[in-house]
Amino acid sequence: MATDVFQSLKPHYKAFLLLERGLSENTRLAYMADVEKLAAWLSEAGIEVTEVTPDILHEFVFALHDLGISLRTQARVVSGVRSFYRYLLIEGILDSDPSEQLEGPKLGRHLPDVLTVDEVKAMFNAIDYSARYGRRNRAIIEVLYGSGLRVSELCELQTRRVSLDDGYLIVEGKGSKERMVPMSELAVEQIRLYLDERWRRGDKVNRGEEDYLFISRNGRHLTRVMVFYVVRELAEAAGIVKTISPHSLRHSFATHLLEGGANLRAIQQMLGHESIATTEIYLHLDNLRLREEILLHHPRNQFSLKT
Questions:
Q1: Are 137 and 190 in contact (CB under 8 A)?
Q2: Distance in angstroms (rounded) separating the CA atoms of residues 105 and 280
Q3: Burial tier of 263 (Cβ tally within 10 Å: 0-12, 13-18, 19+)
Q4: pTM: predicted TM-score of the whole model, two decimal places
Q5: Which residues partner with 215 through β-bridges?
Q6: What is the DSSP letter of 277?
């Protein structure tokens, strides 16, 4: 993987940020983290930071946008990347700046539909476990936020494709493409609790619906609309004023993993995305590495909540 050039440049760029620009410590740390995200993304394709073209940088920014990373995070990452390439130009390491035409998103007046970690935590705390489907709803939110599933993937999820012992889901995404998605330990625990409660209570399950993981009160698997209401009602109960949908949890999953330091290409694979312009050199990451990305970088593994 292409890491040698960036590793050799890191200490000099750090000194540049401190001595030449007089930036605050928080800004310097943010810039370094943003460039490291780019370097890790490039390394998966065997590209050094000094070999990029404007098209490659635009693809990187598009990857952030395509995964639903919050606009504010996108804008900050672009600022960090542009600062790094200005440094390479000033030091004569590059003859031209490939980030010169790189633009971040317009933040505009609309609130991004990405939740903060505290807002997600508030949604979990708002769940009423004395209600008949409280435990089911907890498991739903854990899977949407903890694994980044599309709502359609969650609705179609079958128990035979859920490996609780190994901590993986097998989902069918767009274009009938299957992928294996790791789960957090919290998600595994909550699915177990939900299934134990469902079987102990003897919930009604219609014929032909037996293998679906999430079942409604009428004995059928959940629909997209049902999940939308579950998410919206929990957001309201948590006092969240943003316009929230199940897709917001998917966007939050991607944003919080990236903010936590996860590899962008790993996030792409977990969400079922592929690189647009470098498909032929896209490196599929092994399942163990994907699981490590979630366990190391997802906020649900950084705090625990009462159940």
A1: no
A2: 28
A3: buried
A4: 0.67
A5: 221
A6: S
Query: What does the DSSP 8-state code read for residue 282?
Result: P
Instruction: Give the model confidence (pLDDT) of 111-154 as tens digits.
Output: 347 899 999 999 999 999 999 999 999 999 999 999 989 898 99
Q: Is 276 helix (H, G, I), strand (E, B) or coil?
A: coil
Residues with active-site annotation: 150, 174, 247, 250, 273, 282
Q: Tell me the pairing of strands 178-182 and 162-163.
A: unpaired
What is the pLDDT confidence band of residue 107, given thresholds at 50, 70 and 90?
low
pLDDT digits (tens, 9 = 90+) for 212-227: 999 999 999 999 889 9
b/e per residue 145-178 (b: at least 16 CB within 10 A): bbbbbbbbbbbbbeeebbeeeebbbebbbeeeee
